[in-house]
Amino acid sequence: MDDEQRRRELGDNDAPVEEELETAFERIVEEGAQRLHRSWSSLLVTGVFGGMEVGLGVMAYLAVDHATGNKLLAGLAFSIGFIALLLAKSELFTEGFLVPIAAVAAKEARVGQLLKLWTGTLLANLAGGWIIMWLVMQGFPEWRETVVESATHYALAPLSVQTAALAVLGGSTITLMTRMQHGTDCMPAKIVAAVGGAFLLAGLPLFHSVLDSLLIFGAIHAGAPFGYLQWLNWFWYTVLFNVAGGVVLVTALRLVRTRELVSEKRKEAEAEGHPAG
Question: What pLDDT shows up at residue 114?
Fold first, then answer.
């Protein structure tokens, strides 16, 4: 009795799972390579748009928070920003913790290209977000107290075990959201993942280097009692722990698991005399 017959009789579902993982991994690597080989101008433009689209989500968040005072409902409203990112195919810094790294791990791109993507996207996200938040606060000055109250939670938060944990959770949450979206071709399922990720990030709230920076920018535009120095004191550690959460807790472990399963499948194919896929 060969292995395939044994799987059928035992009802083993590992083969389909391995095939799905391999297909998803190859899709992620292909997309990651495309993103990493873009020019500076393309990278910066998509990054600016990404910051502006997240800004639309922040605008929805503030509208609901101002009207209801309910952070969980406001978190759901923020999902508009992540849905816009998904459908418009823009770039968000923290979405670069899975797909581009997979391409580097598969040797389809270089580490220098990954650092270029991270640096350019982060700066462009912040620039686009700063612009959209200036417009939002000029358009809705009645939200001043709401945005200052929301932003103070981040801008004046010192580095501690709690704030580090919130930033790690923020990075891992959005990276898992990215993985879920790349695990399916169903657009409604991708949108559900975007809504879930937005709810956790903005509704709880977790610490997210770009999303929360936009809230702080909005508060500064509205005349908050803190400024860019306080933002930087919060921003540096949030970025580092976002990266740690996304890369270590989600990306690294999933890459190891996926590559092991794909490697096992290819060895089985070679042992049976079939070419590896």
Answer: 92
Confirm if 178 and 250 have CB atoms less than 8 A apart. Answer: no
- Distance separating alpha carbons of residues 158 and 169, to the nearest angstrom: 17
What is the structure's pLDDT at 128? 98
What long-range pairs does 109-115 form, CB within 8 A, spacing at least 24?
Answer: 109/32, 109/33, 109/36, 109/37, 110/36, 113/36, 113/37, 114/36
Instruction: Give the per-residue pLDDT at 260.
Output: 58
The string of pLDDT tens digits covering residues 108-155 is 889 999 999 999 999 999 999 999 999 999 999 999 999 999 999 999
Q: What distance in Å separates the CA atoms of residue 6 and residue 82, rounded to the nearest whole number?
A: 44
- Domains of the chain (ranges; CATH) run 15-271 (1.20.1080.10)
* 235, burial (CB in 10 Å: exposed 0-12, middle 13-18, buried 19+): buried
